[in-house]
Every structure is written in C-alpha cells, then in structure tokens.
Design a protein that fits this description.
Low-confidence stretches: none
Largest sheet: 6 strands, parallel
Shape: globular
Strand order of the largest sheet: 5-4-1-6-7-8
Structural class: alpha/beta
CATH architecture of the largest domain: 3-Layer(aba) Sandwich
C-alpha cells in the first residue's frame, strides 16, 4: 500500500462499529411512533448517507409520513444519549491511528452523521489522534459532494496531493471521486466487496494495518 501524507476517514463502518446503537435508536423512535420496527440488517442497508436519510428509509412513507419529523427528532434525541452504548472502534483501528500519528501524518474524520455526534464520538474514542472532525451541517453540502472533505483539507492546511480518502460504502467511493482523491475501501464495514465493486471501488483492505504504507 502506498504511503500518504494525509488520511481522511469516514466514521461509521470505517473507524467505528456503530450499527447496534443506530438500530436501537431507530427502533426506539419507530416504537414511539407506533410504526413497525426494523431488523439490524435492514438498518445496515439504510445507513451510509446521514441519519436523516436513514430515517427516511426506516419510516413507512418516508418524509411523506405525517409523523416523520417528530419520529426523526425522537431518533436524534435518543441517539445523542445512547450513541456510546455499544459503539466501539473496529479491531486494529486505534493502533492504526496511533501509528499514523507517530509517522507525522495528518488525520481527519468526515462523516454524514450530524455534527454534534461526530464531534462527541471523535473526542471520546480518538482524543489525541484525529486533528479535524467534520459532521453534517446545514451550511455545507454532505457527502458525496466534495465540500466536507475539501473543508477538512483546508483545516488541516493540507493539499489534495498526498491525501487519501478511506471509507466503507458507495457514498465514500463517490465522495473520493468527486474530490479527485484516491479511495481505499474497507471490507469490515457496512457493505461487502461485491457491492463496492459494483459501485466503482477498486482498492480494498481487509484489515486496518494494511492501510499503512510499506
């Protein structure tokens, strides 16, 4: 694997195993609204482009449902209180980030998770490793638009040359393409290799340590 100067990571499904807490908050909100609950595997396929879209997919009728906004608000409230219940880094991720920092690399997280949750999780799990963490905000377009990645590069004072984007989904593949960055697709996240191949992924790693340059 080529060694880079700047590493920009997706969060859910890439650095953190968050599916259990996302599913729990989804079903809490659906129960509150009297709607059918979703399986963990359904939630796995709903995630990847922000929690609002997750709930649009989970709620029958999506945004056309009269109770959508209230249900989405319940999800957000519950998730902010319970996003650390079962969430944890994937095996090898803390060691990877520590080694990258030891080598003097610049590290950022760019997520479609709402901004407060992105900041909380980054500070809790990677307080001395991640230089910049950017979540969803109303003032900037979310992935796969390039805006949040370019903002991370700006805050890092890092050029696109020598930077790489790392994620687990088709949205991440498109994000990297839209930014003009190479993309490393991880195979421990929310999407499998066949799905990623169908959506244009070409460089894969099965373990975090494979991201380190030779």
């Amino acid at each position: 694997m080529k060694e880079f100067d700047t590493y920009i990571f997706d969060l859910d499904g890439t650095l953190l195993s968050t599916l259990g807490d996302l599913a729990a908050s989804t079903n809490y909100a659906l129960r509150w609204a009297g709607m059918p609950e979703r399986t963990v595997e359904e939630v796995r396929m709903f995630v990847g482009n922000g929690v609002r879209l997750l709930m649009e997919r989970a709620v029958p009728g999506g945004v056309e449902n009269p109770k959508f906004e209230e249900t989405y608000a319940r999800f957000r409230e519950h998730y902010m209180e319970h996003n650390l219940d079962t969430t944890c880094p994937y095996d090898g991720i803390p060691e990877l980030l520590c080694e990258l920092k030891r080598r003097g690399k610049k590290l950022a997280i760019v997520s479609n998770k709402f901004y407060a949750a992105t900041q909380e999780l980054a500070c809790h799990f990677f307080p001395d490793m991640i230089d910049v963490a950017i979540g969803e905000r109303e003032t900037i377009r979310k992935k796969p638009a390039p805006d949040t990645v370019l903002e991370a590069l700006r805050q890092l004072d890092a050029p696109k040359e020598g930077a790489v984007y790392i994620g687990d989904s088709d949205v991440d593949v498109m994000t990297a393409k839209n930014c003009g960055l190479p993309c490393i697709s991880v195979l421990w996240g929310f999407r499998d290799k066949d799905f990623l191949l169908e959506h244009g992924a070409s460089l894969f790693v099965e373990k975090p340590e494979e991201i380190l340059g030779d």
